[in-house]
Write a structure and sequence with these properties.
It contains 9 helices and 6 strands. By secondary structure, the chain is an alpha/beta fold. Helix 5 links the parallel strand 3 and strand 4. It is globular, with a radius of gyration of 19 Å.
């Protein structure tokens, strides 16, 4: 408990395959995945995690069947009505190209952000219509506009400049990235932010991911030495 990651990012993978293996429609798996979000959010709050960022819907997911997209948007609406935010003192934030979402979903997202703005135990960040390439492209466009307008000089652009123009500029980079479902890839998620994050992959489908699985991921993180480019000896001298 003395080395709990302050920011955990999760790629919640495996909902569709979990449902298919049970001869159920993929949307059944997404609904089960929402239940997992509730459990993991509560446990992260209990453990003292300060930020939980969940990859919910990528820009590439717009290429899925229209029926599945509609079902996912409906789930976003119903899950945001959950009292888990107020019960656990959790603030809600959203990142991504929100303008592409249906208007009723946009309205609900903003309403939930405002309603939970005073909560302080943890911030849950949902990545909706999000991808890192989209985010970094938008940041580059904003910086280019500032240079063009004379607000910023090219020689003054630093890593901090880029970071401040990302949609995640209100929180620290993830300490730990978890991906469920057995795939071993990042899938265009927080590519800038996870430069020095610890990565953890497991075969468990997201609907089956429970508190014990979360504890295993955190324990794996706790047994690693984060060097950030330094030598082991340098880190141990601290």
């Amino acid at each position: 408990m003395t080395r709990i990651p302050q920011h955990i990012a999760i790629i919640m993978d495996g909902n569709g395959r979990w449902a298919t293996e049970r001869n159920k429609p993929r949307t059944y798996g997404h609904q089960a995945g929402v239940d997992t979000v509730r459990r993991i959010t509560s446990e992260c709050t209990r453990l003292g995690v300060k930020y939980l960022t969940l990859y919910t819907f990528s820009t590439e997911n717009w290429n899925r069947p229209v029926s599945e997209i509609h079902a996912l948007m409906g789930l976003v609406l119903t899950s945001l009505e959950d009292e888990i935010f107020m019960k656990n003192n959790v603030r809600f934030r959203v990142i991504g190209d929100v303008g592409r979402l249906p208007q009723e979903v946009q309205d609900k997202l903003h309403e939930t952000e405002e309603h939970t703005a005073g909560n302080t135990a943890m911030t849950m960040v949902v990545a909706l219509s999000y991808s890192s390439r989209w985010e970094i492209t938008e940041a580059a466009r904003q910086i280019a506009c500032e240079v063009k307008e004379g607000i910023l000089l090219p020689d003054d652009i630093t890593e901090d400049t880029v970071a401040q123009h990302l949609t995640t500029n209100f929180m620290p980079d993830p300490d730990l990235l978890i991906r469920t479902g057995g795939e071993i890839r990042i899938s265009n998620y927080l590519l800038w932010q996870i430069a020095y994050s610890e990565l953890y992959f497991c075969d468990t489908y997201w609907p089956d991911f429970n508190e014990e699985d979360l504890h295993k991921a955190i324990a794996s993180y706790q047994h690693r030495q984060r060097r950030f480019g330094k030598t082991e000896a340098q880190v141990e001298q601290k």
